[in-house]
Amino acid sequence: xxxxxxxxxxxxxxxxxxxxxxxxxxxxxxxxxxxxxxxxxxxxxxxxxxxxxxxxxxxxxxxxxxxxxxxxxxxxxxxxxxxxxxxxxxxxxxxxxxxxxxxxxxxxxxxxxxxxxxxxxxxxxxxxxxxxxxxxxxxxxxxxxxxxxxxxxxxxxxxxxxxxxxxxxxxxxxxxxxxxxxxxxxxxxxxxxxxxxxxxxxxxxxxxxxxxxxxxxxxxxxxxxxxxxxxxxxxxxxxxxxxxxxxxxxxxxxxxxxxxxxxxxxxxxxxxxxxxxxxxxxxxxxxxxxxxxxxxxxxxxxxxxxxxxxxxxxxxxxxxxxxxxxxxxxxxxxxxxxxxxxxxxxxxxxxxxxxxxxxxxxxxxxxxxxxxxxxxxxxxxxxxxxxxxxxxxxxxxxxxxxxxxxxxxxxxxxxxxxxxxxxxxxxxxxxxxxxxxxxxxxxxxxxxxxxxxxxxxxxxxxxxxxxxxxxxxxxxxxxxxxxxxxxxxxxxxxxxxxxxxxxxxxxxxxxxxxxxxxxxxxxxxxxxxxxxxxxxxxxxxxxxxxxxxxxxxxxxxxxxxxxxxxxxxxxxxxxxxxxxxxxxxxxxxxxxxxxxxxxxxxxxxxxxxxxxxxxxxxxxxxxxxxxxxxxxxxxxxxxxxxxxxxxxxxxxxxxxxxxxxxxxxxxxxxxxxxxxxxxxxxxxxxxxxxxxxxxxxxxxxxxxxxxxxxxxxxxxxxxxxxxxxxxxxxxxxxxxxxxxxxxxxxxxxxxxxxxxxxxxxxxxxxxxxxxxxxxxxxxxxxxxxxxxxxxxxxxxxx
Length: 798
Known about the structure:
Shape: globular
Number of helices: 4
Largest sheet: 28 strands, mixed
Structural class: mainly beta
């Protein structure tokens, strides 16, 4: 740590004394009626959209900002609405003169002349402005991800289309949860509380290297300056068997030196999934049907505060709590046939139940210290999260053979009490200068997860089981990560922009499985370079190139060797031996007006995934995680936004890629071939006042393969209707997802000569009615306003 500290001091000293020549940007903002726009927000952004300075126009609509030489974006806002934007190359004083905006100020009510586009492309990420969409209203974060360009959500697993694993962040903080727990967490965040979703395929060096194909960063809404508002909402969602009721509240306040934001969301409902698998063994055919039903109660709360303690010191915190209570049942029926015989000779019935109580608590403490007025600053983040889950899974069943008649019984239980703690500290130093914008930083993360396991499995016996004496053992996993990074962004001229970075991460892991008495230690240090280049060839054409090296670490559930029995012949378990895998991502992006072409290549080595391993001796199936694939992907993504008609806007995406697969230490049929996917999302304004809105979306997975699985086509058709009342403060929304019930996951594979054909349905047809009312104050009291609280926390880009 002493070397890290000296490293930071060195860079602060070097760049603190770079040239500080200041230039002015000034102008006067008036309305269409030639009236001064008083107290409008004038915001200066860097080219990476990092907010640098904010001031207010005076009573005459005039403003003046001082800053150093460089490339910037100037934005004029009023009451959350963007009225004017302009890119500036500052090498001398600039007088914009009269800036005319189409705004009407009447006691805080504004007629919008311009709002942020739904999709924005920046040098290192795609930004999807959820708050401007119709289809996400009344939904949750997982629903919002489903309509985010470039994102796919299948079986509650979130991925980037055409790529592999990703990491999900909320306000730049990684959510360290397994797939099922992460999905529950995302379902507890109302989409109405989300400002934007960032898709970062080659993240800058300041982000952790984990997340094989990139990061998905969910940004929650924050209070605007000198306002307060409270929104209350309720919703009801109907699925194929059960419904869900939900209530949500969101409060925001920003005045003088204090900014507060809080939300509370509660949902109570149920869902059901249907699974069907055909397993063809050399001498038998197994037809297994599972009906999985889950009832849940989800409570999510977020509380954040930020205070300007001193003119150059901002402190804040954010607390996130997520509490779930889940009761589930899984009815399983397996029919076993002899080859070429249509009558089953063996019927296996099982009833599994599960009671889960996962809880997630996260606390972030934030400090920002400004070194000077040119944008140099030090940002300190201290983070802690705790995740615990008491998971109980008893099961019982019978195996009946038809001729000659015989019956056997089985019973068991599996309890897993998991506790995970993580402590992390991070220092970022931002050092903008005349020549380039630099940043450097360090991070230390300490994680430990402890599993207390109690298990009993009777196997097949001839009499019903009364007692279940459980055997206890523990699985412990520790992971420490230390990181250093350096990054720079240089705007060479009005046409060429470059962002480069290098991150080093050292990782030490230890795990101990008391059941097998197996102790493992794995240490490694790796470098992760990133490059992002942008060239503007003309006003409408931009070329971008990016490269990044990433890794994907197994999560705690995937490492846990605990065995869960569905039947004596079907089990699920993790793998203590899992290793991280590494990914090299290349992208070339060409943008012309509203059309974007993204050509990409990725190489993924040692990819781990869950695989169904058959045992040919007794026809058992074990679902286990293993490092099993080497992948290479070649493809392109074409996106087009149509907004030439005032009442209709359409965002469209086509992805075609070719995937080659090489299995590792596995006797399976590799599948190489094309993947093709199309999505169209359309918004319609049905009234001039924009109070009656309609959305229609369509997804078509044309063809695909993954590893050893050949995936069959599917489609999803959805729509949403939104009606705004009472000055648009009352919002009534109706959503229908997968209305034709065609979103089915069907795939086939062959392992060790055993062919598997599967058909899964995840209860995706849903109908939801939601009502939300927002009230508050947009009036400002400029006389009492302190300029120190105009700076918002900026933690993206470099």
